[in-house]
DNA sequence: GGGTAACCGAGACGGTACGTCAAGTCTTATT
DNA sequence: AATAAGACTTGACGTACCGTCTCGGTTACCC
């Protein structure tokens, strides 16, 4: 049975982990450009060839790290207190604060830069934040369908999430801080104006 | 008066134009990374020092070209037929089509990458598209205030525009094409559900 | 008795032959540098370790191939018509022609390069050509002792051969072709000026 | 007049010297293979590109150093006491001693290796030693024409020199030391047997 | 109208990183 | 135990650009 196949040593999991780890650390420290394959290799204690054997580019490494949850793991979950409006506000506040910090801003732009030359990174970035996992905006909005006049059953929650996240992205790119007015406005865009 | 002083020749406008021109062309041809100062200099028939004398980085060149209207000049104007819903739909369709073409997609990502390491580019990108000039989304929405139930006077048109443009950016990054359903959904996000 | 012992398969003669064969072919095709152990292994259908187990370096492989007569096998035999002068002339002519051809020249330099980092190759090169086998210069000169005034019994035939071969070597290194004058001169060096 | 030509900075003589110097030192220390362009660059305090800009290969650097007299400068001059036989013997003795020392042997083989992949090195090696400058074998033999029965006017001194030097090369390649018998034999090859 | 200062093109320089090749060692499964 | 396969670290290759720095030549203003 088992078609079997080849002999020889098997891919080293230790090397793989060390590479992802080193990449994530250096991404945070120095930003996406200035992130060098040689640097990752040397920090991970690994030969360059081992990186090139398994990944096509540095953006592919970032994509995999993202997939493994080594970046943006959990900080960005949307809370669920039953009150969508308040939850969205709190989440936007949290995200806005992260974007205000130098590291947060830098990380955000690094991820965007990575997405720029790797479709997977863009895809995953969108999935992780706007997507459908627990804690994602889309999920939270789905739960709130029907509870607000502007959010009737059938409302396009995915697209609303996308618009919300897109707005944050644009803020990050233009270095415009997210103040309370902007947050209120975005909540309005998502779920309609506050009742009275 | 003329506090000035200084002798010597004045900045060569011809060189400046040649540099911007070369940068714009090569940006379109080869993408933001792979855009090299040396390449721009040689294509423009200019010494490297002439570039470094006047710009701090290649992203600054792109920023200036953007400001001069040498990129994204006019294609992206929002029409005004009196019917916001129809106008937005048409505009999103047009933008979506641009993003579908290889050059359009590449240019979009190149600009995002440029924005990634230059605040001005991000700022101008936001202004040009979402901003307040004639043909910008925000302007069109302002004109429509009051004409739709979801767009009462005082609605946060700037933030709505931002969300719309952000959604497009996110699509560009994740290489998700903009189909008719998505367009309809985005219009709903912006100006509310179609009346019956 | 049969001290022996040891289980497991024994050195594979097939592998050994395949390796030597592959090495000789690739030496001729691509030259000594550009001759890679990995290339030999893959052409021979053999694991790298099998090569490293039995040889210390690629020059050792060449040395062994040389010993096996897989290189320079026979082309370079000195004829024996009874007339040393004529025989030497013919042989030098033949060698000179080989050195003129691209493959011949390349092979010669490859062997010199191999000799450069392996004493055995140097030794064998000297033995094979200048040495004492049948067809070697030294042997031919020994047979001619006494037949020429400059070649009395007791003449240092080994050293004369060495000088002759060395001259060829120097020609190969300096890419100086061996013309008829040079051949005549070398014959004079070896066996004295033509009578008359 | 003077057609002139281009502007711009001029080749740095300091860099050129540093590179040749570093190359010569490392050649002596580590041998021709193991001589790395990167090593030369770093020892010379120079960018790699500066080397590649002016030389095609490491053997070309060695060729130039040889031409500049930075290698084999003077040690190998043939003395001239009036007695060819004695002079050649002394010179062969000196060369033989150099070849016996580890550095000398290694240097000799390094030069041969360099000649192996660069025609100029081979050419210059031949010229410097066998050639026609003062102190060269050929020159010495020319001076001795007529003074020995085996060295009549018109004897092919260039070819004799070549044979002598070639014999030394062959000794170097095969790691055969040059003993007194061999020296005597070579002198015999060159100028005939000792008179009684 | 001679000085002098800033411009311009060209491009050499010391560097960093790229992506590739091969070396020699080690590991696995197979024979 | 020897093999074919091939992953591993290391180190060098030759190339592309970086940003800085000369060069020689050319304006334009200022005495």
TrEMBL record, chains A, B, C, D:
Source superkingdom: Bacteria
Q: Which UniProt keywords apply?
A: DNA-binding, Transcription, Transcription regulation
Where does the HTH tetR-type domain lie? 13-73
Q: Name the DNA-binding stretches.
A: 36-55
Pfam families found in the cross-reference section? TetR_C_11, TetR_N
The residue stretches assigned to a coiled coil in this entry are: none
Q: Which Gene3D superfamilies match?
A: Homeodomain-like (1.10.10.60), Tetracycline Repressor, domain 2 (1.10.357.10)
Name used for this protein in its record = TetR/AcrR family transcriptional regulator
Task: List the source organism.
Answer: Leucobacter alluvii
């Amino acid at each position: 049975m088992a078609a079997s196949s080849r002999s020889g040593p098997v891919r080293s999991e230790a090397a793989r982990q060390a590479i992802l780890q080193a990449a994530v650390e250096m991404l945070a420290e120095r930003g996406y450009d200035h992130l060098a394959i040689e640097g990752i290799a040397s920090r991970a204690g690994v030969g360059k060839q081992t990186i090139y054997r398994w990944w096509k580019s540095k953006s592919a490494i970032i994509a995999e790290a993202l997939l493994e949850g080594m970046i943006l793991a959990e900080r960005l979950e949307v809370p669920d207190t039953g009150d969508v409006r308040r939850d969205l506000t709190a989440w936007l506040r949290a995200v806005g604060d992260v974007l205000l910090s130098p590291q947060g801003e830098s990380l955000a732009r690094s991820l965007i830069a990575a997405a720029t030359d790797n479709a997977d990174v863009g895809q995953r970035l969108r999935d992780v934040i706007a997507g459908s996992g627990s804690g994602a905006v889309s999920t939270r909005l789905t739960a709130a369908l029907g509870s607000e006049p502007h959010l009737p059953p059938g409302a396009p929650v995915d697209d609303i999430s996308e618009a919300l996240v897109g707005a944050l992205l644009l803020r990050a790119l233009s270095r415009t801080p997210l103040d309370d007015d902007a947050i209120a406005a975005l909540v309005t865009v998502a779920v309609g104006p506050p009742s009275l």
